[in-house]
Amino acid sequence: MGTKILKSAATPSEFPKVGDWVAFTQYNSESEAVIHSVLPRKTTLSRKGVDPRPGVSSSVEQIIATNIDIICIVQSADQNFNIRRLERYLAMALAANCQPLVILNKIDLNSQWEDLVRKIKSRLTVDIPIIAMSAKDSLGKDELLSYLKQGTTSVFVGSSGVGKSSLINMLQEEDVLKVGEISETLGKGKHTTTHRELLQLSSGGIVIDTPGMRELFMWDADDAVDELFTPIVELSKACKFKNCSHTSEPGCAVIDALENEEIDPDMYEHYLQLKGEQRKFSNKRKKVSPEKERHKRFSKQIRQVVRDKERWY
Ligand SMILES: Nc1nc2c(ncn2[C@@H]2O[C@H](COP(=O)(O)OP(=O)(O)OP(=O)(O)O)[C@@H](O)[C@H]2O)c(=O)[nH]1
Ligand SMILES: [Mg+2]
Ligand SMILES: [Zn+2]
After folding, report:
1. Which of 24, 27, 91, 204 is the most buried (most CB within 10 A)?
2. Structural element, H or E, at residue 48
3. By C-alpha distance, which of 263, 274, 265 is closest to 228?
4. Which residues contact ligand 1 via a Cβ below 6 A?
């Protein structure tokens, strides 16, 4: 069915997104519809995107999907597995208040996959289900389906080629989604899925397939990063300075723990990296408040109208 959107939304994030419930009227023998309003969203899964307007370089909230209950974070169990990437997705899920599920796909390609599961469990301090799967050999299907019950909406996220569409096809027991090859030179996917696609499983659950992300910068996830790295946050309570950056200050309990090998150095570095990104993000947002941004855009539109008038009259 075709839809027409009445352009009364003030910001791009107010337009209907995948997962939204909307009020609409059908017309033209039910082949087209007008959307009148978007119902309040239960959850919003976002990332930092680049403003698509020409000449504007600021970052914008890019909504991946809305009203999500479960985020299936898919990683492949082969050499492409990356713990930091997984942590980024987890922070995004926690920031959106959605239930994350870690899916370790392609276990058929790694005979040591159980070690990988242990590694993930020892790194993560939050209790998140990890499901080992193989879309190729139909492994892990019942366990995943036990989460994707009727009444739930879930979204599959992860890099290109990890098998998101293959997993959904496996759940559906038919090839409804296009699946792509892996590049032999890069060992990565070729961005086969190009747009988000929502479908209903025979079990009743709604699933959304998404295109593989090239990079993921989180949107407003500072508290979520703290939640993900609780041991470091707990340690930092004993730092001498309240605003300790845990990099060079005397009396830093985090650095002490690092030197005494009580925390994983990679975890520590990643925590600092993500906190740094979030700090930059909130500083920028403080500078450009949404009202200011709206005002700026409105003034620009007026200037454009004046310019156009001058050109035509
Ligand atoms: N060996 C193996 N290959 C798999 C498995 N799951 C998917 N593949 C293969 O991995 C390739 C990529 O699968 P897709 O399902 O297209 O991956 P995707 O995550 O949807 O990728 P994008 O749509 O590009 O984001 C295909 O060649 C699949 O056949 C698995 O469990 N084991
Ligand atoms: Mg796909
Ligand atoms: Zn410190």
Report:
1. 91
2. strand 44-50
3. 274
4. 105-106, 108-109, 134-136, 160-166, 179-182, 189, 191-193, 211-212
Whole-number Å distance, alpha carbon 182 to ligand 2 midpoint, is 11
Mean pLDDT on 91-110: 95
Range of the domain at 79: 63-209
Asked if 102 and 157 touch (Cβ cutoff 8 Å), the reply is no
Q: Is 202 helix (H, G, I), strand (E, B) or coil?
A: coil
Q: How many structural domains are present in the chain?
A: 3
What is the arithmetic mean of pLDDT over 241-260? Answer: 95
What pLDDT does residue 285 have? 65
Residues with CB under 5 A from ligand 3 (ion): 239, 244, 246, 252, 254
Q: Is residue 145 part of a domain?
A: yes
Query: For residue 9, what pLDDT is reported?
Result: 64
Q: Relative to the alpha carbon of 167, which ligand is closest? A: 1
Q: Out of 57-66, 104-113, 294-303, which region has the weakest mean confidence (pLDDT)? A: 294-303
- For 220: left if phi > 0, alpha if psi spans -120 to 50, otherwise beta; the answer is left
In a domain, 144, yes or no: yes
DSSP state of 12: G
To which H or E segment does residue 199 belong? strand 197-200
Higher pLDDT, 301 or 81: 81
